[in-house]
Design a protein that fits this description.
single chain, about 280 residues, alpha/beta, Arc Repressor Mutant, subunit A, Rossmann fold, 2 domains, 5-stranded parallel sheet, about 60% helix, globular
């Protein structure tokens, strides 16, 4: 499934609407690519079987049968709902399986990063003239909070935007053109996150997306979009790859604005010491 997802992402910008719908069905439910017939998949995507075949050929396969054979040979748990995964046979060695899967998630996520996109994202996040706002779906809220906290230690005007849709919309609607919105979410996407991206974009914000696919609604409207590997050893998606990418972005910002970031960190450290906030 990984190879198919990569091919879809590489062709995302050029897919006709009907083929895009087929691709979205396949990414949302990888079992469809492995086991559904052409006719079944066409019905699910509200298109024809011929469109399904055209998509397979556009992606470089010899046809749907070739695509399906290759997907079945490497079929894994990628992005299937937890309600499906938990019903399957568990792993014998949970610790070993988790270590292998999480290391793979980190490598796949960081290996997929385009260096020019990374430099562009770091430049936007390091630009202290721009406010930075971070929104993240509930499952990714920890990653969003950690990224916002790290950036806030390095530069001013960074906020992890949370709360009701009303509160989120109010905060983002008052942004200035050129502000940066970091949006983090994986399929199945939370509606409020998508709405937040729309609100921020309408206010003139530049969107950086950390998501699971080039076909993600977060990626399609983003200035820069990074795709993360999220395969879990158990029933739940992994966020280790997303966390690693967030750490890389924060590290890049620290290197880009080292002198003012150092001064800011020194002031924070002095305040902590003065207040006895931390202890060894």
């Amino acid at each position: 499934m990984t190879d198919l997802a990569t091919r879809i992402e590489d062709h995302a910008a050029s897919l006709p609407p009907a083929e895009r719908r087929v691709a979205e069905v396949v990414l949302a439910d990888p079992s469809a690519a492995a086991f559904a017939t052409v006719a079944e998949l066409g019905r699910r995507a509200t298109t024809s079987g011929a469109t399904v075949v055209r998509l397979a050929e556009r992606l470089g396969y010899e046809g749907w049968v070739d695509l399906q054979a290759q997907v079945r040979s490497g079929f894994d748990q990628h992005l299937r709902p937890a309600t499906v995964r938990i019903r399957e046979h568990g792993v014998d060695d949970v610790l070993a399986a988790t270590a292998e899967r999480e290391a793979d998630n980190v490598h796949r996520t960081l290996d997929a990063v385009d260096r020019s996109d990374f430099d562009r994202a770091v430049g936007l996040l390091a630009d202290r003239r721009r406010a930075v706002r971070v929104v993240a779906g509930e499952a990714e809220a920890g990653v969003g909070s950690l990224l916002a906290d790290a950036l806030d230690l390095l530069r001013p005007d960074v906020q992890h935007v949370i709360g009701s849709p009303v509160a989120v919309s109010r905060r983002l609607a008052h942004g200035s053109p050129g502000d940066v919105l970091v949006a983090i979410d994986l399929r199945r996407y939370e509606r409020w996150v998508l709405d937040a991206v729309v609100t921020a974009t309408e206010a003139g914000a530049v969107v950086l997306a950390l998501t699971d696919s080039r076909l993600s609604p977060l990626a399609l409207g983003a200035e820069v979009a990074f795709t993360v590997a999220a395969d879990g050893a158990g029933p739940f998606d992994s966020h280790v790859g997303t966390h690693a990418l967030a750490n890389a972005l924060a590290t890049g910002v620290a290197a880009r604005i080292r002198r003012p970031a150092t001064q800011r960190l020194d002031r924070v450290e002095a305040a902590w010491r003065a207040n006895g906030a931390l202890t060894d």
